[in-house]
Amino acid sequence: MNSRETQGNRIALLGGTFDPVHLGHIALAEAACQQLQVDKVWFIPTQLRYYKKGQAAEVYDRVAMLSLALAPFSNMEISDVELRKRPEDNYTVNTLRTLTKEYPDTRFVFVIGGDSLEHLSTWRAPEEFLQLATFAAAVREDVDAKRARALIRKYEKDYPGADLVLLKMDPVDVSSTEIRERAKTGASMEGLVPEAVERYIRKNRLYM
Q: Tens digits of per-residue pLDDT, 39-71?
């Protein structure tokens, strides 16, 4: 878990259920480190509100898999900021309020998918959270960048002081849904998750 040694740093935030974490998440974090001039990337696992038994991993399993996946990377850590709150409080604005209060000298960069730009204004309190952090939208340069730039200009006009940037990367063809299906049937997960994560899934019979 992260510590107050990060004061004064520039930190990228990557949120999700990470159920399970996969190589696409790692690639996104690596792109953030390379392009956004950040010192670290914090993975923020969120709580799951509703799920059927066997179709999702418990919080402790998801955190354990994240720990295994991030172990080789000194610039990637886990933040428990959303695990400390009730699931219904896990709005982006609440998360950023907490982090900016706990780390007042740190500048945060919140990484989102390019598709999230389309409805960012519908999230709770955009006029506030767009002031609390830089938002970096991950896009494919050949397909999504033009539309993303137009949306960024619109948000910066509608919300003065907002800071949004592009994070360009090739998409990684992997999804947590596919991994859970492979785990259920016993199929190989090679090339989808780190080896340590696959071993953990097999050993603990997750998603069965």
A: 999 999 998 755 555 568 999 999 999 999 999
Tokens of 73: 């990377």
pLDDT of 145 above 90:
no
Two tokens at 76?
């990637």
For the stretch 91-97, contacts whose Cβ atoms lie closer than 8 Å and that sit 24 or more positions apart, written own/partner, are 91/123, 91/124, 91/125, 92/15, 92/123, 92/124, 92/129, 93/123, 93/124, 93/125, 93/128, 93/129, 93/132, 95/13, 95/15, 95/44, 96/129, 96/132, 96/133, 97/128, 97/132
Q: What are phi and psi of 170, to 5 degrees?
A: -75, 135
